[in-house]
Amino acid sequence: MAMWIQAQQLQGDALHQMQALYGQHFPIEVRHYLAQWIESQLWDSVEVDSPAEEAKAKRLLDNLVAELQRKAQLQGGEDGFLLKIKLGHYANQLKSTYDRCPLELVRCIKHILRSEQRLVQEATNATSGSGGQAMDTLSQRHQQINQAFEELRLATQETENELRKLQHSQEYFIIQYQENLRIQAQLTSLSSLPPAERTQRETTLQSKRTTVEAWLTREASTLQKYRLDLSEQHQKTLTLLRKQQTLILDEELIQWKRRQQLAGNGGPHEGGLDVLQSWCEKLADLIWQNRQQIRRCEHLTQQLPLPGPMEELLTKLNADITDIISALVTSTFIIEKQPPQVLKTQTKFAATVRLLVGGKLNVHMNPPQVKAVIVSEQQAKALLKNESTQSESSGEILNNNCVMEYHQATGTLTAHFRNMSLKRIKRSDRRGAESVTEEKFTVLFESQFSVGGNELVFHVKTLSLPVVVIVHGSQDNNATATVLWDNAFAEPGRVPFIVPDKVMWSQLCEALDMKYKAEMHSGRGLSEDNLVFLAQKAFTSSSNNPEDFRNMTISWAQFNRESLPGRNFTFWQWLDGVVELMKKHLKPHWNDGAILGFVNKQQAQDMLMSKPNGTFLLRFSDSEIGGITIAWVAENPNKPGERLVWNLLPYTTKDFSIRSLADRISDLNHLLYLYPDRPKDEVFAKYYTPPLSKAVDGYVKPQIKQVVPEFATQNPEPSGGATSFMDQTPSPSVTHPNNFGVYPTILSVSFLSESST
Prior knowledge:
The strands form 6 sheets. A 6-stranded mixed sheet has the order 18-17-14-15-16-20. Strands 1, 3, 5, 7 and 8 form a 5-stranded antiparallel sheet that branches. Strands 6-4-9-10 form a 4-stranded antiparallel sheet. The chain is α+β, with helices and mostly antiparallel strands.
């Protein structure tokens, strides 16, 4: 209910925007009386574009109707009588409206709640001044845009008033012109009258004609001046419209698209399109009003031709306004939900296309069809240069046609491609060392529709973000590298799909940190020490000073084409292996700060040797993709008094699918403190698997445990039974030139002690 309380405090334009969210599709009274209930429901858990979610949406609708009916029944007394009737009516109305399409109700309420949240946030930032400089700048920019719209509205209203005056003046001129023609006809007919009468009548008519003609001459000049002045005013309005449209399309919309691209690397969500759509709809409305005014001016000019440049001026104005609306329509045909950028053949995928001005221009009255085709980088270049008259394809997409749907509750016109699948792909000849996972494609969405009763016909196209096509899961990590590099370093307005071959190391650090945080779903990203470790790996350097890497550049080849020295994998393949391991099995431990990870073997040695025996840390393996090892300090079992740092053979995803990290650490009794000095149970106990219960039906339950034979000490079982260790073979002999050793772990099986029947 807190959101509704704040929404009621909105003022001015924000209040009008909030009120405009409501109507017959969802009455504001329902929002008011069910505020707490509405805000407590999990609307965001329903995917409105998935038919499978319809049952969940239906339950929400039924619950909403029941809650409204309950609220109605609680109303009593004289004051509550009308409200009881009204709420009951709304319950029936919502049931009737959404019973066959409950997902539309969810879409509507999600739109309302998000819009309210945005309006409240903007109002809070504007009044508190605590939103930071970036938010202040955003608010100022939005304020400037809204002020410009007000100027355009006033200018359009002024030209409308002037046009009406011109029309009135011209109509009166035509009446007077017809009067002059009537006088002329009367003079012509005087020849049939007697001379005396003719002379008297002729003098009167001549005088009258002279007066009217003089007035017509003056008025014609005035009308022409009115027309020229109005034409000049329209030209000024069109200049303002172009400026406003450039600001919205070339700055605001481009920034939204850039945020959408960075979101592909794990950046913040690009944000909704509601504000952009409202601006684009205002533009469309103003452009259309001015276009209609110019058309009426043309009609007036044709109705009463006068000497002068008006015809040429109006032709230019008409061409200019058509260019402006064409740019608006073609630029606002956008991809709201991008197809996956790593696209596997024979796999279902989805995308959503939206026309921001579709509702305002009534495009939905004759819903257009959108087609999706996959094209190569070269074909995309040709399309943008208008060198390709018809869309070529580099593959075959199934279910690639979709009709745009208008959602009245949100005012959006969208095409939801829910079940596309790439059946086949046609690859081009590769350049040099380029691999198939470096080849970029894009999904082209195109449609055709008319506005204004077929006055204008538009053929619109939009390209998706670059897509890398794979045929096997083993290609995923290299394809992800191509996508990450492109998303991070693409410049707005580039030729498809050019990206720099080299970037500053600091730029790559930002991209990797963004990706890592997103994969971990955590605010704990890559620290400066982590990034120094990665720089050492990328540049084969031993420096620990971050400043040594700040001005260095890293090439694409260093990132994911050339193997690291002495390894058979690239820098990215190693890091991606870490990310996948963490994401699947170790995310909670990273977020708890339990995993240092980015520490090499020598650093681990230096850190642990100053700590008590039994202190351990977790670090990522240098030699194995997606491996993590435990390093600990302990006395050498074979040489009393000598302390060594030991390293277990790295664990991988396969190991953790058998037994979790926390349980493995619990198994190893010689591990006592997580570096620097935290008791291990304090950190990991909440993740331990609970002890097995007693056997039932006479069966003994096995329990897998991990041992390092040289350090194994038996623990009493919680059940009180004895533990049998199996396969406790001695570890291979190792040498310790640097005071650290590598030991494999052995999984043992313990049995619950119980008699079988």
